[in-house]
Amino acid sequence: MSTATHRSPLTDWTVLVPVVALIALVFSWGRDLPSYAVILVSLCLAGAVLAAVHHAEVVAHRVGEPFGSIVLAVAVTVIEVALIVTLMADGGPKTASLARDTVFAAVMITCNGIVGMSLLVGALRNRVAVFNAEGSGAALATVATLAVLSLVLPTFTTSKPGPEFSTAQLTFAAVASLALYGLFIAVQTVRHRDYFLPVDTKRIRKEAAQAAAAAAAGEDDEHAEPPTSRAALISLGLLLVALVAVVGNAKAVSPTIEKGVADAGLPNAVVGVIIALLVLLPETLAAVRAARRDRVQTSLNLAYGSAIASIGLTIPAIALASVWLSGPLLLGLGPIHMVLLALTVVVSALTIVPGRATLLQGGVHLVLFAGFLFLAVSP
C-alpha cells in the first residue's frame, strides 16, 4: 500500500516548494528581473507544477472521479483567467488578442497535446486505450460548441468591424458559455456521473496483481486507502498555493518571454501559446500519469474539462472585465486557426466514437498539436 498520502505534510517537499515559489513570486512581482533571477523563478515555477500535480492527485483520491479532475481544471482556469485579465489591464493595445490566443492555445493543447500523449501512453502500455465514449463525446461536443460560439463567430459577425463582438453579442456569448459550462458540470457530477468514470476492463483486473511492483517503482497505488479529510483539505490549500505560484511566476517571467519572442521576430501570439503551455503543465502531467495507470478516462476528463473551463470561464470574465478595459477585444480566429480547430473537432470525434484508441490516434493528435505549434511560430 502506498504511504505517499500519509506522509507528514510539514516535512514534505510538496509543502516547501509551493511556499518557496510563492515567496519568489512576492519578491519578483512587478520588477525587472536579471537573468539569474529569471532562472531561479523558472525553477520555482517548475517545482510548483510538480507539487500541484501531487496535491491534485491527493484531492482526487479523496473525492473520487470525476470530481478530482474538476478540482484541478477549475482551479487552474480561475487563476489563468486572473492572469489574462491582469496582463490585458497592464499591456495596452498589444494585448487585445491575448485572451483569444491563450484560450485557443489551451484548446489545442488539451484536445491534441494532452489527449494525444494520454492515448499514446495508454496504448503503449496496454496496446489499446479504453475509455467511455458517452462521457468523452459529450465533453467534446461541449468544447466544440463553446469554441465556435466564442472564437469563430466573432470573425463573421457584422455588428462591429474586425474579429470583434458587439456588446450585446459578447454578453450573449458570456451567458451562453457560463450556462453551458454549468450544465456540463451538472451532467458530469450528478445526472450521468457514470459516463465519466474510468472503464473497468478485464485488463485492469489482471493488472491488479502488479500493484505492489508499481508502488515499489514510485507510482501511486490507486487501491490505497484514501487520505483523511484533513489531509485532503491541506492538499487542497497547497494546490491553490502552488497554482497561484505557477501562474504568478509565469507572469513574472512573461516580460522575458515577450522580449525573447520579439527579439526572435516571432508573432506576438506565441506569447499566449507559451503562457498556456506553462499554465497547463499540471494538468498535462496529471493526465499522463493517469494514462500510465490505465485510467485514460481520467486523462480525457482532465483534457476536455480544462478546455471547457478555459472557454466557459474565460469568456464571461473577459466580458465583465471589458467594462473597464480600454481598447478592442479581438476574439475571432483567423483562417489558419479555424482550419486547425475544424480538423481537431473532426479527428477528435473519430477518435472518441469507438471508445477505444490505438497508437495511431494518439500519433494523429500529436501531429496536429505539432502543426499548431509550428504555425504559431511560422504562420
UniProtKB/TrEMBL annotation:
Sodium/calcium exchanger membrane region domain segment(s): 38-189, 235-376
Pfam families: Na_Ca_ex (PF01699)
Record key words, sorted: Membrane, Transmembrane, Transmembrane helix
Domain of life: Bacteria
Compartments where located: Membrane
One of the record's GO cellular component terms: plasma membrane
Molecular function per GO: potassium:proton antiporter activity; sodium:proton antiporter activity
Keyword Transmembrane annotated: yes
TM ranges: 12-30, 36-55, 67-88, 103-124, 136-156, 168-187, 231-250, 270-290, 302-324, 330-352, 359-377
Bilayer topology: Multi-pass membrane protein
PANTHER family: SODIUM-POTASSIUM/PROTON ANTIPORTER CHAA, SODIUM-POTASSIUM_PROTON ANTIPORTER CHAA
UniProt name for this protein: Ionic transporter y4hA
